[in-house]
Amino acid sequence: xxxxxxxxxxxxxxxxxxxxxxxxxxxxxxxxxxxxxxxxxxxxxxxxxxxxxxxxxxxxxxxxxxxxxxxxxxxxxxxxxxxxxxxxxxxxxxxxxxxxxxxxxxxxxxxxxxxxxxxxxxxxxxxxxxxxxxxxxxxxxxxxxxxxxxxxxxxxxxxxxxxxxxxxxxxxxxxxxxxxxxxxxxxxxxxxxxxxxxxxxxxxxxxxxxxxxxxxxxxxxxxxxxxxxxxxxxxxxxxxxxxxxxxxxxxxxxxxxxxxxxxxxxxxxxxxxxxxxxxxxxxxxxxxxxxxxxxxxxxxxxxxxxxxxxxxxxxxxxxxxxxxxxxxxxxxxxxxxxxxxxx
Length: 343
Known about the structure:
CATH architecture of the largest domain: Up-down Bundle
Structural class: alpha/beta
CATH topology of the largest domain: Rhomboid-like fold
Strand content: 5-15%
Number of strands: 6
Low-confidence stretches: none
Number of helices: 14
């Protein structure tokens, strides 16, 4: 929820109208004997420098003079400078000589009025404080809702299981050592094919070579897995995740380990690519059916960018099992399509 957009909606609700001027957010209310003018100055983004207050005042005063001539009425103006937190001391020193400037602390939902500045603007102070308090309450509610949406039950359980397996293995030995990982369930050609230990196709998807490997995979899974689970439902999402993980292990077995039998393969990335494939299917399905819900939530260009970036990283980096990634992606795409069929 964008603060500036909500602030402008609030001003519109107070009877103000947007005045189109170059490089400014100006709102006016035409009263019987005066023109009320409110200027919004957005917060400074990182790396940007705020225009000196003196120059801002010169600019707005010229506009006030033009409006006085245009409407034949005197103008009364209030400038709202937006901040996240308190303005720094230098900014406060610049502001205090000008009586028509108020600071709005977005994060603290406060109207900051410093020395020599007017205490009210036709009852606007109390209404602004009510607006900012309502905005903060709504923003907090949205944040809690998004947090609940992110931590879906099955996806959260999968993340937790990966972490638990990693912690157990870390207590038992060195998880960055290929021999140790092979002894405890990672994929090795001889063990799977010659010894028939096909359970490794499943177990290896919950094993990770080091903290970095685990953290990268779990962060991605936490962000995108909850979306697919929310759309498909918990049972079908679990089927896509586990099925894609096993399919990715099979692809790794026949295309990576078959060429290099001494390779040790493990990780949840194949299953995660299956989740990406599932999301890609749903976005394409909505496009063909001319629905916008999942297109707006996920976005085709964003989904393709994530997939291409992840695959290109794998193909340009050593030690990455690209066969598992492609296998998981394709299987996740197909399986989501099958599970999405309605009678």
